[in-house]
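Record type: monomer structure entry
Structure origin: computed from sequence
Chain ID: A
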Amino acid sequence: MKAALYRRTGPAAEVLSVEDVETPEPGPGQVRVRITGSGVNPTDWKTRAGLTGQDPEGFQIPHQDGVGVVDAVGDGVDTSLSGQRVWLQLAAFGNRYGTAAEYAVVPAERATPLPGDAPDDLGACLGVPAVTAAHCLLVRGHGREALRGATVLVAGGAGAVGHYAIELAKHAGARVVTTVSSEEKGELARAAGADLVVNYREDGAVDRVREFAPHADRIVEVALGANLELDLAVSGAGTVIAVYANEPDDPVIPTRRLMVANTAISYVLLYGVPADELAEATAWTADGAAAGALSPLPVTRYALDDIVAAHEAVENGAVGKVVVVP
């Protein structure tokens, strides 16, 4: 099969290549998926660049997310999965066969059926962003039902995680306010269903958020250090700040102010989420897709041969979703 891969970490142009490798066979508990779209996340380029670990053993086909059709199943896997369209998550986690190839082999639990009327673009956009958003909304909570009538603040509502945090929160019946940095991004956040969109660079932004949400029940946070003052301004007893991204410098945590407010910070990294909580977030994401509550991000497509350009686009902060098509 044709696959993009790297044998050592480093800059995209220096380490990524497209080669013919042997098509893998699914082992026990695994499925093989013919990939129709491979979603690129920031974690993919950071891993390829060497920011998250060591060089791979042998080779690594990158990308955690994707969409495709199950074409073979291993022992112990329900044969009815064969022929189903699925979306993938964490495909390259502990596995050399990520989705940047014509085929990927993954544990069956990492392949979730995609509703028949959902476009491939949606399947390619789910995975890490949507499941992260779901877990951020659920962590330290009482299930999705508890979000009905709650107030949610989503930082960075035009980003991939922010997009799905808005859509899932609205699907659960919450009120949602989100912050963005431009009018273009504001349009994306409004299209996702946010009740209020605030440009945090404009004067009076904090007051506008507080007027809508004097007390946020949950905050989905992309930049804790940069946004901590706003988060604290709308935090109170029971507020959970779910942080899913890091920053170049660790923020100073104002412990006393958080204690007085009885506010909790919960850090979210999907790779270490307990299996039962990951399954709950995945199931909610699947339910949202089946209900038509989730939409694709704006997609920019690259051919597999253009894998370097695709990685560089994400590394440079591309808005929406970069999808590599084998």
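Annotation 1: The domain at 130-271 is CATH 3.40.50.720 (Rossmann fold).
Annotation 2: The chain has two domains: 2-126+295-325, 130-271.
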